[in-house]
């Protein structure tokens, strides 16, 4: 069976303002799961309840200041909130703190419930709370006065929640799964079960998932949503996932299960910081620059259900380099909350770069700040590629960006302009090498890879494929290297003489007279102007084929003398040609004096 989408809404608000009681009234379920919570009448950890009127799953969070981390783990993956303020309690410290958290996370959907309306006139609190929420990312939300004791306002609240969830975006079911775990426990006979809020994407039984951080693979053995078993569940949903695989044993809140191959775990990111949010007692508004400058270096980084110590280095223009104490699966545009556990200040961060360059050169931080100032965090594959020149397709997908075109080689994407530049450099490189070493033309792909600073030799081949360069003897070489000016006259003289008598190779005296030493002959051969049959025995490039043709016309087998005569040359040259043909397998010696032609 396929799971239908059930939107998830988290509670928020000061301790003892009636959050858990309201959920009890709405759902008939008990959000305080622990005996200690029920004995103390205090929510400590997250609670999970749901109703079908309307279809909503709730994550109930603790309001007490001591349990803010649990609150953050609950609201982190949830896009909507039921904000609770007691009519007789009024706006309180944790009302403010929770609102700051929601604003920092950028939560845009919510309903305001003023509870305990049987104990005091809800109107003034309702007006004040609505006004405060209105100044945050929540904006204008529907507000309802309720009483869990008299039942006043509950139908109106259900209706408002129905409108809230109907307005929530339904995300792409094919989105890559990142399930932040908020509970992990063992069920006798079934093994490990983890629960979480599945924001987007689809989970299926028998699916393989990767554990963030360790990279271990686990398999979905069973899948439940709101205590009903499904073959497939699409986000948004609350899910309980029964896992197969030994690695599941170590899972806990803050870990994440991922679509394998689609996420990268990163330990260093660049972010844009929002204005600071401080609790009401020390409320202050600061510009982003001021926030960065005042930020302590050590903060807790919250995203999803994870909380990780982080080192923050302001770069300027409201941006910072954040180093996490353990890598997390993060993508461009992710929203994170940085929190100072000392003074409870929170800072919002938008991920601008999940693969930032090292800041090891002088002035690098300033240059980086200038670059970051132009970024928004919205994943833009073409822009990523433009900044990086080359990158792996898998890395781009893991960032959350879409490759703007097909790879140039293997898994490598290249920015068009960068690629054209590399191609130009490749041609110049070969040209310069050939000019300096005409006797040894061409470069090995590895030499090119190093000279161009490329990460993969396949890129060299792909670069060369679009040029006039040819593969010769395992090297990348110009289609034909040009014969240097100074040798042209002498080589032309030899070629003229050979044109008249193809096997009358010039002797040592003639070569010396023309100034053609061993190196010059090597250059002429590389340029395709002459063929060195043996050192000092020089013919025209097609001479061996011509010799085969002539020898094939002789009675087989034949002697060196017969060959010499047929080719019209000296014994020295005939022997050199025959030995070369032996080496090439075109002729074969049958005894001391005779050869036959083959093939
Ligand atoms: N009279 C009255 N009491 C309420 C109402 N809602 C909650 N309470 C009481 O307020 C106290 C705190 O409620 P609780 O749900 O635990 O608050 P939470 O900390 O926000 O979850 C409990 O003693 C509840 O019985 C209400 O609508 N009317
Ligand atoms: Mg509670």
Describe what this molecule looks like in 3D.
- With 599 residues, the chain is α+β, with helices and mostly antiparallel strands.
- It is built from 19 helices and 30 strands.
- The strands form eight sheets. A six-stranded mixed β-sheet has the order 3-4-2-5-6-7, with helices on both faces. Strands 8-9-15-12-11-16 form a six-stranded antiparallel barrel. Strands 17-20-19-18-21-22 form a six-stranded antiparallel barrel, surrounded by four helices.
- Helix 12 (445-452) crosses helix 13 and helix 18 (560-567) crosses helix 19.
- It starts with a strand and ends with a strand.
- The structure holds guanosine-5'-diphosphate (GDP) and magnesium ion.
- Magnesium ion (MG) binds at residues 19-20, 43, 60.
């Amino acid at each position: 069976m396929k799971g239908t989408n059930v939107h998830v809404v988290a509670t928020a608000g000061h301790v003892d303002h009636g959050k858990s009681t309201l959920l009890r009234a709405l759902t008939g379920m008990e959000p305080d799961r622990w005996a200690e919570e029920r004995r103390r009448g205090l929510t400590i950890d997250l609670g999970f309840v749901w109703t079908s009127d309307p279809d909503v799953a709730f994550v109930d969070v603790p309001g007490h200041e001591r349990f803010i981390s649990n609150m953050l783990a609950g609201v982190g993956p949830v896009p909507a909130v039921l904000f609770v303020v007691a009519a007789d309690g009024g706006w309180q410290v944790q009302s403010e703190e929770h609102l700051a958290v929601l604003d920092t996370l950028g939560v845009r959907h919510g309903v305001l419930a003023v509870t305990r309306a049987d104990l005091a006139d809800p109107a003034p609190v309702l007006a004040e709370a609505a006004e405060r929420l209105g100044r945050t990312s929540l904006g204008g939300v529907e507000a309802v006065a309720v009483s869990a004791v008299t039942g006043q306002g509950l139908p109106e609240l259900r209706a408002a929640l129905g409108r809230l969830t109907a307005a929530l975006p339904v995300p792409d079911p094919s989105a890559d799964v990142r399930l932040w775990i908020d509970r992990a426990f063992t069920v006798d006979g079934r093994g490990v079960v983890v629960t979480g809020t599945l924001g987007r994407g689809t989970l299926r039984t028998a699916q393989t998932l990767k554990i963030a951080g360790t990279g271990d693979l686990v398999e979905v053995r069973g899948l439940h949503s709101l205590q009903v078993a499904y073959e497939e569940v699409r986000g948004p949903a609350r899910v309980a996932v029964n896992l197969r695989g030994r690695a599941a044993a170590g899972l806990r809140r803050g870990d994440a299960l991922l679509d394998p191959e689609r996420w990268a775990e990163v330990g260093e990111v660049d972010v844009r910081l929002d204005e600071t949010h401080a609790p009401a007692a020390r409320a202050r508004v600061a510009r982003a620059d001021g926030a960065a400058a005042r930020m302590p270096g050590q903060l807790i980084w919250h995203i999803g259900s994870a909380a990780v110590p982080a080192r923050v280095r302001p770069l300027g223009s409201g941006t910072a380099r954040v180093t996490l104490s353990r890598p997390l699966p993060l993508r461009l545009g992710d929203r994170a909350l940085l929190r100072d556990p000392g003074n409870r200040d929170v800072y919002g961060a938008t991920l601008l770069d999940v693969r930032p360059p090292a800041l090891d050169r002088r002035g690098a931080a300033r240059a980086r700040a200038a670059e970051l100032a132009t970024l928004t965090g919205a994943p833009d594959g073409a822009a990523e590629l433009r900044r990086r020149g080359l990158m792996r397709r898998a890395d781009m997908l893991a960032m959350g960006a879409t490759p703007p075109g097909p790879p140039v080689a293997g898994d490598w994407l290249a920015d068009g302009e960068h690629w054209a530049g590399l191609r130009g450099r490749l041609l110049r490189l070969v040209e310069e090498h050939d000019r300096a070493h005409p006797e040894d033309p061409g470069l090995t792909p590895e030499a090119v890879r190093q000279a161009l600073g490329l990460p993969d030799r396949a890129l060299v081949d792909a670069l060369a494929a679009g040029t006039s360069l040819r593969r010769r003897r395992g090297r990348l070489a110009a289609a034909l290297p040009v014969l240097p000016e100074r040798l042209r006259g002498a080589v032309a003289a030899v070629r003229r003489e050979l044109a008249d008598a193809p096997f009358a190779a010039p002797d040592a005296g003639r070569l010396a007279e023309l100034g053609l030493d061993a190196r010059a002959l090597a250059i002429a051969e590389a340029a395709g102007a002459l063929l060195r049959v043996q050192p000092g025995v020089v013919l025209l490039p097609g001479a061996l084929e011509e010799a085969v043709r002539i020898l094939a016309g002789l009675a087989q087998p034949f002697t060196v003398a017969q060959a010499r005569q047929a080719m019209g040359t000296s014994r020295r040259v005939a022997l050199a040609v025959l030995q070369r043909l032996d080496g090439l397998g075109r002729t074969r010696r049958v005894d001391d004096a005779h050869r036959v032609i083959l093939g």
